[in-house]
């Protein structure tokens, strides 16, 4: 690679096999992504002018004028460069169905490469016509007639059955690949997908003409069209693979007459769209087809839900499901694999799951108090882990365990360290005056009683004169109420008291 090429590749940040590649002729070809990168880097503006279009729209010439601005650190002024180039299209250098668009792309690519300096290095765009596009000659009618005559001669000289078919294969040239179709003496090679494009080569006199399709659908339509033309013109099927497929199509048509004749005899064994023979109709296969009829049956396995959709229009069998927020799609080609999967899902259903889910709301969460921390034993969760949730003041605490053994060990430890619940002591009850009178008369009959914490006993006269006993303050008409604090007790001389009963009544 020259210094100029390396400089341009680095300047425009082009990547090998992404923005450009080296073709079989040894030339560097810039892809569409490379053209876009260069155009954005240089801020190229392009004007188009339609110069010529033929009446049949197969020949076209478009003129493109490109302008770019160059910024240089050495020169404070911005320079503008301008270039003009043309894009031409004709049947000799184009196989696409839209010649005007091809001409436009060719002109734009040439202008962009010229402004970027790639023209000096010999680079080209992917839309440039290949050297293989040269004027081709169609085979004459005499050539086609001679080919058909040779095929008929080989047929008549061969024996009946498979040997005649082998002779047909010998008529086909050895250089025709299996993926080729011959139409009007022209070989069409079905190349298939190449770098995101679907390609069909047309070989005439050893030269190739390429036809590309953007998607597989268009490619298949062209293939079907070629097959129809091939059957009508030649009357034989040159490719080896197609000769093998023909007996299968004939074998399918014969059983259909048998099934129609057996409709009145055994209607229960006939299924719409089936291609089985009368012998196969007695086979117990229809019994296995009853399972797909259970469409949209729901099977729950753990956290996953499966819906048995059954047979689809394309002949495949579908099982759709959902695991959390993730969708599940299982597609099976044949019915036996689908039925095996359905049986496996049914066997894996846990019958105890519904009952446990109903009982879960009724479970009471056990609480353990350890100092100022309150623990709640939540037990097993939906994800299979075991949870202990707690709260220390306003700060939440949680612990998860992967297995039940660790969970039980920690719960037992919490129970050992748990503090007993505080016992709430009841305060002194207020006693009404009527209750005091009732209690007093009841205590006269008892030798010892306890009233308001003061022990009353039967005392002698000497004991009464000598001692002083702490009793509640006695109020009389002569005495005034002295100031006292709540809870204080007074020492009163009880010697003048003749009868404790009278004093209590005065109270």
The fraction of residues in strands falls at 25-35%
How are strands sequenced across the largest beta sheet? 7-8-9-10
The computed structural class is alpha+beta
Helix content: 25-40%
Tally of contiguous helical segments:
15
Q: Can you count the beta strands?
A: 22
Rounded radius of gyration (Å) = 52 Å
- Mean model confidence by pLDDT: 68
Region (Disordered): 234-294, 342-363, 458-491
Biased composition (Basic and acidic residues): 242-252, 474-488
Describe the structure in your own words.
With 507 residues, the protein is α+β, with helices and mostly antiparallel strands. It has five domains: 3-125, no CATH class; 141-238, no CATH class; 292-353; 364-417, no CATH class; 433-506, no CATH class. The chain is built from 15 helices and 22 strands. The protein has helices spanning 3-11, 32-42, 99-116, 141-157, 162-171, 216-233, 240-261, 278-281, 285-288, 335-347, 353-359, 404-417, 433-444, 461-466, 500-506, and strands at residues 20-22, 28-30, 45-53, 60-70, 79-89, 124-125, 180-183, 186-194, 197-204, 207-213, 297-301, 304-311, 317-323, 326-332, 366-370, 373-380, 386-392, 395-401, 449-451, 454-456, 469-470, 491-492. A hairpin with a 2-residue loop joins strand 13 (317-323) and strand 14. It is elongated, with a radius of gyration of 52 Å. The model is unreliable at 131-137, 159-174, 231-255, 259-294, 353-360, 448-482 and 484-490 (pLDDT under 50).
């Amino acid at each position: 690679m020259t210094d100029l090429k390396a400089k341009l590749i680095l300047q425009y940040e082009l990547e090998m096999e992404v923005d450009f590649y080296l073709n079989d002729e040894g030339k560097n070809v810039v892809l569409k992504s490379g053209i876009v990168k260069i155009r954005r880097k240089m801020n190229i503006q392009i004007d188009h002018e339609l110069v010529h279009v033929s009446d049949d729209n197969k020949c076209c010439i478009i003129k493109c004028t490109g302008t770019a601005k160059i910024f240089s650190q050495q020169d404070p002024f911005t320079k503008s460069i301008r270039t003009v180039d043309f894009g031409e299209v004709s049947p000799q250098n184009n196989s696409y169905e839209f010649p005007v668009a091809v001409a436009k792309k060719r002109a734009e690519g040439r202008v962009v490469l010229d402004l970027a300096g790639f023209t000096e290095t010999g680079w080209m765009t992917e839309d440039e016509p290949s050297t293989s596009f040269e004027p081709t000659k169609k085979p004459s009618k005499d050539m086609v007639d001679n080919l058909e005559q040779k095929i008929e001669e080989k047929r008549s000289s061969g024996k009946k059955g498979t040997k005649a078919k082998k002779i047909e294969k010998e008529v086909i040239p050895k250089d025709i690949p299996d993926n080729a179709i011959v139409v009007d003496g022209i070989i069409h090679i079905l190349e298939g997908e190449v770098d995101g494009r679907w390609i069909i080569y047309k070989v005439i006199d050893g030269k190739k003409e390429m036809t590309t399709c953007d998607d597989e659908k268009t490619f298949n339509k062209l293939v079907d069209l070629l097959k129809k033309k091939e059957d009508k013109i030649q009357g034989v099927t040159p490719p080896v693979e197609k000769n093998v497929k023909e007996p299968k199509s004939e074998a399918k048509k014969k059983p259909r007459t048998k099934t129609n004749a057996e409709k009145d005899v055994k209607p229960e064994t006939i299924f719409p769209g089936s291609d089985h023979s009368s012998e196969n109709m007695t086979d117990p296969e229809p019994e296995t087809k009853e399972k797909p009829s259970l469409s949209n049956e729901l099977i729950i396995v753990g956290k996953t839900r499966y819906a048995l959709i059954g047979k689809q229009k394309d002949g495949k069998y579908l099982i759709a499901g959902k695991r959390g927020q993730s969708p599940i799609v299982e597609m099976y080609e044949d019915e036996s694999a689908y039925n095996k999967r359905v049986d496996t899902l049914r066997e894996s259903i846990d019958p105890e799951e519904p009952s446990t889910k109903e009982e879960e709301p009724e479970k009471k969460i056990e609480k353990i108090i350890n100092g100022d921390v309150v623990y709640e034993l939540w037990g097993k969760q939906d994800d299979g882990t075991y949870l202990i949730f707690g709260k220390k003041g306003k700060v939440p605490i949680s612990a998860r365990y992967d297995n039940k053994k660790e969970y039980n060990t920690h719960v037992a430890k919490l129970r050992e360290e748990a503090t007993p619940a505080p016992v709430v002591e009841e305060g002194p009850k207020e006693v009404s005056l009527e209750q005091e009178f009732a209690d007093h008369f009841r205590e006269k009959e008892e030798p010892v009683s306890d009233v308001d914490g003061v022990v009353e006993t039967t005392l002698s006269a000497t004991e009464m004169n000598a001692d002083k006993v702490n009793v509640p303050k006695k109020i009389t008409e002569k005495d005034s109420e002295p100031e006292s604090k709540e809870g204080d007790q007074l020492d009163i001389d009880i010697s003048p008291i003749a009868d404790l009963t009278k004093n209590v009544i005065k109270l």
